[in-house]
Amino acid sequence: MSKTSREKLIEIKNIDIIFGTGKKQFKAVDNVSFDIYKGETFGLVGESGSGKTTIGRAIMRLNSVANGEILFHGKPINGRITKEWDREITQKIQMIFQDPGASLNERAKVDYIVSEGLINNKKYSSEQERIEKVKKALMEVGLLPEFASRFPHEFSGGQRQRIGIARALVMEPEFIVADEPISALDVSIRAQVLNLLSNLQEDRDLTYLFIAHDLSIVRFITNRTAVIYKGRIVELGETEKLFNNPLHPYTQALLTAVPEPNPIKERQKKLQVYDPSVHQYEMDPPEFVEIEEGHFVLANKEEQEQYKAVLVGKGV
Amino acid sequence: MEQEKILSIENLVIKFKLRGQTLTAIRDISLDLYKGESLAIVGESGSGKSVLVKSIMGLLDKNGYIDSGQIIFDGHDLSKFKTEADWLKVRGKKIAMVTQDPMTSLNPLKTIGKQIEESVILHQGLKGKDAYEKTLQLLRDVGIHEVERRYGQYPHEFSGGMRQRIVIAIAVACNPQILICDEPTTALDVTIQAQILQLLTNLQEKYLLTTIYITHDLGVVAKVADRIAVMYAGDIIEVGQTNEVFFNAKHPYTWALISSLPQLGIKGQELYSIKGTPPNLFKEIKGDAFAPRNQYALKIDFVERPPFFKVSDTHYARTWLLDPKAPQVSPPEVLLAFFKGEGQ
């Protein structure tokens, strides 16, 4: 997209995330690097257990990073940082959660849920200002200001997700991690929430990290996409390019696995199954390389040659 | 094509009593199921699709009851069944079900071999070595390797996809005539989903099953269904063969459902979305339940429930737009392109 600048908002540099200690260690994220540009929507797709949510949580600083660093506006956000910077990050990076049924405090009114971040960060000077901010945030996500005095159980799934979005917006963030924000919603409500997210992005110049397993939605909403498999990014590129010309066998398998809502195409499709043993990585370990401009893939020397040949063959 | 009816639902009304109020979950539905076909029931949560199949299995919650109508299967009217003993002749034996979540539908304290064998012994009357052999055969049928070793393992030793295969093995072990799959793959990853759907299709052929899929995923429907019934607010609003419903949809709700798919969206533009929310089922619904959200709604839609208008021998839709007196309305632009581009 032409609108997105090349200004790096988030830089993830060679991060490892390890759970457990001693002999029971598990490397959930293995040497992952990518940048997110200002104003874009960056998609992260993979199966459950692939580490996509873990990366999102690391940016939120909910999971600590074992190696590597994460930069926001060029400054590290993990490790030793100043108190002011810490506070600023807390405000500028917000999250939208998957399940609107579980992510809202059942015992709190919408007013409190939306303003909790404001209260914690003292981002208002008077009570009047706080109420105004909550009102504004609710209206922005298409809810009525009167809803502030109600409890979460009084709302439908789509409305609850809007409350979750309002809670993020009220902090005036620059960057939002949206972890499967619509997978718990009904089909007819999904489109509403997707449209809301795109409109907010335009109005407020937001940047999203969109974590999902539903590739059709990722294709529709993201500018660039990274595919993650077992803690490693196997392919990254501009979304349309990636969907039209997947190089890595896992990306290809993932794309054929998604059922298309078109009975004619769907029945002609041949299912591809990914078999990790196709790679011969003992002698020639893979690297994450830029195979063409802006298109990265995890491959060893031999595969790099193959992929390049494929790209030449397709006249790209 | 003359097809044999295996199950026939006639004018079914199902109600629930909830906190002193009555909720109508199924509003006067009629639906036939033909032998050997695979029918998909599509709808949002709350549309009544799960309630409908639960009533076929006699698994309605205690506060739910069949108010009127019939479910004819195998010469019996299932809606008249009162006792558990009646139901046990049908449930499991003739109609089996695969549920959504394989984590919760297996017993964590029993080996998976025993759980499948239980079904084999109970429903097929096999004993001892025969039952064991049959169990191993079933495990092989659902694509599990090293069956002798796997037989003695517990559910927690299996992945989600493998567990769903075992649930399917249990369902098939009963040699049922009808297999109901209630969102069989929503809890699974896409790559696993594709494998499970393939497995179900293969088993359907091998065991000559008639299957009912319940899902909200139109991608899954496109893959597995011969026929589709679209439900909205407790009513079937459109029914037809898969290609007819996808490429020649007539009801505005079906239009809206297909148009709001991200696959039809154009990047950078608004995605088509249905305004508002589904109706409150506690209140009596007048006319077409979708009318308040329907931009094509006619005056009569708010007054009288539309009948099924015939589109073809296999395709019916419940919308006044098909009435000869109704104004000519064409579906949304995005949809016309979809109909035309892929419809051949």
Description:
The complex is a heterodimer of chains A (316) and B (344). With 316 residues, chain A is α/β, with parallel strands linked by helices. Chain A has eleven helices and twelve strands. Chain A has an eight-stranded mixed sheet with strand order 6-7-8-3-9-10-12-11, with helices on both faces. In chain A, strands 2-1-4-5 form a four-stranded antiparallel sheet, with helices on one face. In chain B, strands 6-7-8-3-9-10-12-11 form an eight-stranded mixed sheet, sandwiched between helices. A four-stranded antiparallel sheet of chain B has the order 2-1-4-5, covered by helices on one side. The radius of gyration of chain B is 21 Å and the shape is globular. Chains A and B meet through helix 6, helix 7, helix 9 and helix 10 of A and helix 7, helix 8, helix 9 and helix 10 of B. Chain A: It comes from Solibacillus merdavium. Chain A: Belongs to the ABC transporter superfamily. Chain A: InterPro entries: AAA+_ATPase, ABC_transp_ATP-bind, ABC_transporter-like_ATP-bd, ABC_transporter-like_CS, Oligopep_ABC_C, P-loop_NTPase.
The third-level CATH topology of the largest domain in chain A is Rossmann fold
User: Looking across the biggest beta sheet of chain A, what order are the strands in?
Assistant: 6-7-8-3-9-10-12-11
Contiguous uncertain segments of 5+ residues of chain B: none
What is the C-alpha radius of gyration of chain A, as a whole number of Å? 21 Å
Which range best describes the helical content of chain A: under 10%, 10-25%, 25-40%, 40-55%, 55-70% or over 70%?
Answer: 25-40%
Quaternary form: heterodimer
- What's the total helix number of chain A? 11
Could you give the count of β-strands of chain B? 12
Rounded to the nearest angstrom, the radius of gyration of chain B is: 21 Å
Task: Return residue spans of chain A where pLDDT drops below 50 for at least 5 consecutive residues.
Answer: none
Q: Which geometry of chain A do the CA atoms define?
A: globular
Q: Please, what is the CATH homologous superfamily of the largest domain in chain B? A: P-loop containing nucleotide triphosphate hydrolases
The backbone outline of chain B, from C-alpha atoms, is globular
